[in-house]
UniProtKB/TrEMBL annotation, chains A, B:
Organism: Solanum tuberosum
Domain N-acetyltransferase: 98-197
Keywords per UniProt: Acyltransferase, Transferase
Listed Pfam families: Acetyltransf_1
Name of the protein: N-acetyltransferase domain-containing protein
Matching SUPFAM superfamilies: Acyl-CoA N-acyltransferases (Nat)
Xref: Gene3D superfamilies: 3.40.630.30
Amino acid sequence: MAEYHGLSQIFTTTETSLYNNLFKSPNPPFHSPTALILEISPNPFPQTNHTTTTNFVPIIKNNYNFDNLEILDHELETYRSKFNGHGHDNSNNCNVYVAGHVLVYPSYNGFFEKPGLFLDQMFVRKCYRGMKFGKLLFSAVAMQAEKMGMGMVDWLVADWNEETINFYEKMGAHYIPEYRLCKLYGDQLQAFGKKSD
Amino acid sequence: MAEYHGLSQIFTTTETSLYNNLFKSPNPPFHSPTALILEISPNPFPQTNHTTTTNFVPIIKNNYNFDNLEILDHELETYRSKFNGHGHDNSNNCNVYVAGHVLVYPSYNGFFEKPGLFLDQMFVRKCYRGMKFGKLLFSAVAMQAEKMGMGMVDWLVADWNEETINFYEKMGAHYIPEYRLCKLYGDQLQAFGKKSD
């Protein structure tokens, strides 16, 4: 994804940093950086009774046909899920595969009464595009924000990505072209640690 | 500030919402939405020994001349601070005034190893502009991010605001014009609460 956005030179994520940032927060999901994982399976998913306190109920859809997963997805083994909805399945027999994800964190805007979610990244693996999974992931975020009584969902989009902008506008989003991203990082940020005034 | 940015129509903040969003979080400052207040006084500020656990030490500058505050600031009483650095001063004799603020919240970017701060808004009251207070507020945020071991500070800037963009670039920031803001809120967000698929 960083390559697609031409941002490989700023990419510093490691498996450890991802683990620390997503799973070691003392805050519950959606009150700290949180990933929603899009999983697919040729078998029906169990309609489990979730008794979590995180205010999130997994969204299960059965209207897809994944009988020929091996033909569709040539990296199937790489993306085999170790989590089958009941907990970790270390037997590696879990017939569930990761097809995409979305990453959000709680946000705030001083002009709004209620806090929100910032959608940091959304990704669907290439072989699963055109199946409305982007819509599914985006809807899951918007539904969650609404359910938690939040006032907004914010995200950034590249101006050359017309198809994506159209997609978001169809979902009801406001595209605000005049707001541009500024970012301080690396040496320029570290320099502030050495300044005395 | 919302008027200046042409965003009065989306402004829904109330005193209560501001209080709830900024002061009722179970998380410490900078781990939830946090405001830094720029206060000025004709008297020297006390160099107090701060024993807070919030990892923030107030920045005190004495190289300003505010002997004629009443002439400079015609809304002085409105902005008299009730907080004098030692706690609330209900006697209303506190000779300290609010000149500006900056609002931040913790952010995350999946391409970066370390989390960061998102700078939501920065404001210096009109009569205090041109005194490098913007630089002071921005530096305070960058220094705090660096001190907390964060990897970035992100914010948005209006593309027509050339002076501000130049200011940020001089501070070492990267201006990334291709990233534009998308925002889902109001009726369009609420619609997702009613959707079943």
